[in-house]
Amino acid sequence: MSDSPSLTPRQQEIFELIRTLILDRGYGPTVREIGSHFGIRSPNGVMCHLKSLEKKGLIIRRAKQSRAIALASTADRGRFSMPLAGVVAAGPTSLAFEQNERIDLGESVFHPDRFVLRVSGDSMIDAHIVDGDYVVVEPADRADPGQLVVALTPTGEATLKYWHPEKNRIRLQPANQEMAAIYVASADVIGIAVAIVRTHI
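^ thats the sequence. predicted structure below, dont judge the formating
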């Protein structure tokens, strides 16, 4: 992006990598991934570039999260607005982040680290979560059994399901009697659903 403010060539490259990964796969890189991509052996060297990008208002880093890098929004922010981070299927799909959109759902569910996803599909209808609803997500790397999560499968698909670790596999359980559970050898928790905002009565 040629309009990025006062970036060194390496900062520009790192920012473009972060931006591309978030837009393509829905979440940012780790410090280790950045270092490996650019041949930067020291994590401190990567952190120095990230701190500069954060000071220049291009990224946001959240504490205590392994994938804690997000794009900063330049959109006008309401007092209790959170990023509308894209669409998550109630069924597997890829997250498509729309980082410049924000949605204000009021003080009751607001937290600066949270983000919002729009639900697509009907695999959670028995939990009264339907197509077009919004789910407020608390970023997290792990979840307790039975929690409603946004999970990322080994194929890079994100899905809104109940989280059930089992012996040698993960069961991602829908809330639709007509749909079977998804079983995967492993999956990553992106975040925990903390609120559902319904758009249908």
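Residues 81-197 form a domain with the Umud Fragment, subunit A fold (CATH 2.10.109.10).
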